[in-house]
Amino acid sequence: MPKSKKTKKEEKIASTKYERISTTSKTSRSVSRRRFVDTEEWVSKHINELVSSTGLDFLNLSNEEYIAIFTRIVDAVRGDSSTLDMDTIVRRIKRNIDKVYSLIAVAILELRGQLSESQIEFIVNNINEAVLLYAPRLYNEALKLARTDLIERLKDSWRHAWTLKRYPILPLQCPRCGFNSLMPDLSCLVCGATVSEGELKKALNFRNMLIEFAHKESLEDVKKAINYGYVYLSSIGIKPPGENKDLLDVEVFLTNEERSVLADIIKQRESEK
Ligand SMILES: [Zn+2]
User: What is the CA(178)–ligand 1 centre distance, in A?
Assistant: First the structure.
């Protein structure tokens, strides 16, 4: 049966959006396109067998959802093969189960407005790098269920994915949700809050950090902080003001009291010379 335009377009989207996982050698080039088995059609016909033989019945999805999800999975694992064979597909799914699980996690998030607790659990445990996109929703869902264990797991995945995909340095920890997701304008990428400098300082125990900074950095840099009236704050610690601002550094102003803490330490250090 010739393929419709829509199917071709869908296929293009599927193949660009999802990494093809395992491919056979490129034998399909010479095969007439008319013989190409349509993934969705094949999946619809074999959906029950696919679900039971891959052990994915525990997800408790509707038939339509299973078909939508398995169409993505089979598209990802079929490679260039023009025909589809149940044993081969099931074997490839099982062999790449980690990647398949994270593909399913994203697919469920896209397909469903409402998620059951076990689905949220499955998604949190398998979301991998897509956590960077879905953390706000998953955080809210886990919060509603009071599942602190899932929130902690999400935080771990977030940190891991952030340093792997976004930037080598983590953002500051948000005082509200606890994710390393606070931007230099003090807005949080995960919980959406915007915090005040005061709240941030309190949560980080800023005074102790400042004392440590004043003892550790060169006298010149500590004096610079007093003169400029601010420092840079990051997940690594406090940095003196000036040219060395990093992308994620938060500029925090020093109160008169904080400046005098620095001045006292300078005095103390100079007298010890
Ligand atoms: Zn937050």
Answer: 6
Burial class (CB in 10 A: 0-12, 13-18, 19+), 131: buried
Domain membership of residue 54 (yes or no) is yes
- Residues of the domain holding 131: 5-171
Tokens of 4: 């419709």
pLDDT single digits (tens) 31-61: 445 568 899 999 999 999 999 988 888 888 9
Do 234 and 106 reside in the same domain of the chain? no
* Residues flanking ion ligand 1, Cβ below 5 Å: 174, 176-177, 188, 190-191
Rounded to the nearest angstrom, the distance between the alpha carbon of 26 and the centre of ligand 1 is 48
What's the CA gap between 26 and 29, in Å, rounded? 7
CB atoms within 10 A of CB 211: 15
Same domain, 54 and 112: yes
In a 3-state reduction of DSSP, which class is residue 111?
helix
Phi, psi for residue 115 in degrees, rounded to 5? -125, 140
Instruction: Tell me the whole-structure pTM to 2 decimals.
Output: 0.80
Final residue before a domain boundary, out of 156, 171, 186: 171
- Total structural domains within the chain: 2
